[in-house]
Specification:
Rossmann fold, Alpha-Beta Plaits, 3 domains, seven-stranded parallel sheet, 17 helices, binds adenosine monophosphate
Length: 454
């Protein structure tokens, strides 16, 4: 089957942008859903994280968007802030071929009034978590009279997190004539019922189990109660992945597991809902730019994390149900990369629900265990107190780092420029030089405060 994007009737500049991003052909969910999405049909699509669903609805939304009218035309509701931020980032990349598309992220955790102010200036697409959007609706700081498309991303997860009352209230503010798209990793009866309530004759799309799943190795390790920590270190020693996301079921356990890793020379940090938003953002940046090897997370904190090429997921704690398992392991082997998902369990645990998948069962003792191994970060992150609002671009930072220094492009990793802050990853052995360079020199004729994230 020809799954190339050009088989759809999309404008040439959009196709050129997709090629520039590196999307050579449609993923399964894109190939199955886009023809309907582009015809304005309502769709209920089963799509796991990593299947390319954001681009599926993103392409359709952008294709239908009238950029000349600065009013809200699409609303994307996500269960978590991280997912909303990443969805907005992906949409901005997809929208690069069109000028002046305004995409606003409205999530809790950020100050309310600056958001209201941005809304006053107008936006085309809103990516939001339900609680915050409801607050804007109640305070009448936004209205959706001109809305054409509603997307509920990870609809099953929104159900789990008890968001449905809020979602229903939000929907009561939307025009009834609209396109409604529901994406969900699982097709439970509840999701289907919701879809029949809020969609108009939705087309159901279930992507067949794709090759993507086979790119992932799933292994379960039975462990004795007392040696869970040893087993984790053993696994990490054997695989020494470039990056690894370790799941625990409680916040306390994430802290304890991160400490265990640190005590064993494994660069690790914990992330969970109790951390301040800015700390969470810093940790996510460090993980996604390879300044952090191991991230230890609860399910809520890891939702929506989109790290390309995440090498490994470890379930330190067995998830409570198979749905959570699917979500967790969906973090690795995304798009074109490969991955490994390891799960620790005890003999007394009920793992019967996992029997019919492609899981291999091994014992940790069959893996070699190097002594004295270390997992150090490959990069360190420098924070610059200046961003888009200061008219900084990634190229300016790169220029400031490489002008008149021994630093080359290869010493510098990812550069993220946000509104008020920028983050640049530097190879660990070049951090001192880069830090000095930025400390003593100007970027775009201006001095900025800088500091190192540890
Ligand atoms: P998502 O399921 O939306 O979280 O997407 C998972 C990852 O797949 C993201 O990093 C996307 O950039 C990437 N992606 C989406 N569509 C394609 C495509 N057609 N080809 C290659 N990568 C893609």
């Amino acid at each position: 089957m020809n799954n190339k994007f050009y088989t759809l009737s999309l404008p040439e500049d959009m196709l050129a942008n997709l090629r520039a991003i590196g999307y050579e052909q449609m993923t399964q969910i894109q190939a199955l859903s886009l023809p309907h999405l582009l015809q304005n049909k309502d769709v209920l699509a089963q799509a796991k994280t990593g299947s390319g669903k954001t681009a599926a609805f993103g392409i359709a939304i952008l294709q239908h968007l009238n950029s000349k009218k600065l009013n809200i035309q699409s609303l994307i509701l996500c269960p978590t802030r991280e997912l909303a931020t990443q969805t907005a980032t992906q949409l901005r990349i997809l929208a690069r071929y069109k000028q002046n598309i305004k995409i606003l992220t409205l999530c809790g955790g950020g100050a309310f009034w600056p958001q209201a102010n941005s809304l006053r200036h107008g936006a085309h697409i809103i990516v939001a978590t339900p609680g915050r959007i409801l607050k804007h609706l109640n305070k009448q700081t936004c209205n959706f009279n001109t809305l054409n498309t509603l997307v509920l991303d990870e609809a099953d997860r929104m159900l789990d997190m008890g968001f449905y009352d809020d979602v229903e209230k939000i929907i009561s503010f939307l025009p009834t004539k609209r396109q409604t798209l529901l994406f969900s990793a699982t097709f439970t009866q509840e999701v289907k019922e919701i879809s029949s309530k809020i969609c108009n004759n939705a087309i159901h799309i279930e992507a067949p189990v794709s090759k993507e799943i086979n790119k992932m190795q799933e292994i379960f390790f039975e462990i004795e109660d007392t040696n869970k920590d040893d087993a984790l270190i053993h696994l990490l020693g054997h695989y020494q992945p470039k990056n690894v996301l370790i799941f625990c079921n409680t916040k306390i356990q994430t802290d304890a597991t991160a400490k265990l890793c640190q005590d064993n020379n494994i660069d690790a940090l914990a992330i969970h809902g109790d951390l301040e938003q800015y700390t969470r953002d810093d940790v996510l940046v460090q993980f996604s730019n390879n300044s952090l090897r191991a991230l230890v997370a609860t399910d809520v904190a890891a939702r929506g994390l989109d790290i390309k090429e995440l090498a490994m997921v470890i379930n330190y704690d067995l998830p409570f149900d198979s749905k959570t398992y699917t979500h967790r392991i969906g973090r690795t082997a995304r798009a074109a990369s490969e991955g490994i998902a390891c799960t620790l369990y005890k003999q007394s645990d009920d793992i019967s629900m996992y029997n019919n998948t492609n899981i291999a069962f091994l014992h940790v003792n069959t893996l070699d265990k190097p002594s004295n191994f270390k997992m150090k970060p490959l990069y360190k992150t420098i924070v610059i107190e200046g961003g888009k609002k200061n008219k900084l671009r990634a190229g300016d930072i790169l220029g400031a780092l490489t002008a008149n220094t021994k630093l080359g492009r290869d010493d510098i990793g990812k550069i993220y420029v946000y509104d008020r802050q920028s983050y640049v990853a530097i190879q660990t052995n070049k951090t001192d030089e880069a830090f000095k360079q930025l400390k003593h020199n100007k970027i775009k004729a201006k001095k900025f405060s800088i500091w190192l994230l540890d």
